[in-house]
Write a structure and sequence with these properties.
With about 270 residues, the protein is an alpha/beta fold. The chain has 7 helices and 13 strands. Strands 4-5-6-7-9-8 form a 6-stranded mixed beta sheet, covered by helices on one side. The chain has a 5-stranded mixed beta sheet with strand order 3-2-1-12-13. Strand 2, helix 3 and strand 3 form a beta-alpha-beta unit. Helix 3 crosses helix 4. Bound molecules: fe (ii) ion.
Length: about 270
């Protein structure tokens, strides 16, 4: 059985960007909320999704009103799908918890979800300006949650990648964390934060980083520059194997020939 989901990250929503810390940057790269709404339109074309995953930087340093704004958009956009959220370094846990969970708490947001047999473990890697941090306490909590295998396995989702290609940006975590994930039923890791699409292995576990939604980042060996690229990933887990396809939102691609795929080619042949 396959489980499919859209993985978005770094949507950086805000009701009003006039006073944001990156107002002039957003002036050049485009309004993040508009990009997110364009992505929602594209996601609606995928009829087989089981859930939506958004791995943090939900709100760009906003307050309660901004989280209400996000909640309303999500409820309107995906009334029939579970939407699973992690928090990023630009999020604020107190207003998030108040709006989404009706809780007064500043505790890091770690959670376990299960959708159609796939377990989704959420870790909050904190609010340090650059790299994330996972504590030994979080690892003990996670080990406890993973004691009993899930029917279709587990994916781990957190904002800051465990591995980025830039050692300073790698999440700080104890050295045997990859082994711990491998010893349990973790089949893939999904992250954001760096605003460009990246695939790697963390130990032996596939690690997918989605491109940013609010803005993108172009990299060369020694520099990272913000740009107007926005994308998300369509992900599928089948027989404990992940596949990921990036979907571009902006810049709007120039189109040439169109190939319509016949219905029968979209279906997998049944093997007797
Ligand atoms: Fe971000």
């Amino acid at each position: 059985m396959a489980v499919c989901f859209a993985h978005l990250t770094d949507i950086h929503l805000k009701k009003d960007y006039a006073t944001s810390t990156m107002t002039s940057d957003f002036g050049k790269t485009g309004n993040p909320t508009e990009k997110f709404l364009s992505a929602v339109e594209k996601i609606h074309a995928y009829e087989n999704l089981d859930f939506i995953l958004i791995t943090g930087d939900l709100i760009h340093e906003g307050d309660e009103a901004d989280y209400v704004f996000l909640k309303e958009i999500l409820e309107k956009s995906f009334p029939d799908l579970p939407v699973i959220l992690t928090l990023g370094n630009h999020d604020r846990v107190i207003p998030f918890r108040k709006v989404f969970l009706a809780e007064e708490s500043e505790e890091p947001y770690n959670r376990i979800h299960e959708v159609n047999g796939l377990r989704i473990a959420i870790l909050d890697a904190g609010h340090r300006p650059a790299a994330g941090e996972i504590s030994d306490g979080q690892i003990e909590w996670l080990k406890d949650q993973l004691k009993v295998p899930a029917p279709l396995g587990t994916i781990l989702a957190l904002h800051q990648p465990l591995i980025t290609g830039f050692p300073l940006l790698d999440t700080s975590v104890r050295a045997d964390f990859a082994e711990i994930l491998e010893q349990h039923d973790v089949i893939a890791i999904f992250s954001g934060h760096i605003h460009f699409t990246r695939f790697d292995f963390y130990g032996n576990v596939p690690h997918f980083v989605a491109g940013g939604m609010g803005f993108g980042a172009g990299i060369s060996p020694n520099r990272i520059v913000m740009n107007n690229h926005a994308s998300f990933n369509i992900c599928r887990i089948e027989n404990r194997k992940p596949s990921v396809v990036p979907v571009l939102v902006t810049p709007v691609p120039a189109e040439a020939q169109l190939f319509v795929i016949p219905e029968e080619l979209l279906k997998k042949p049944q093997v007797e």
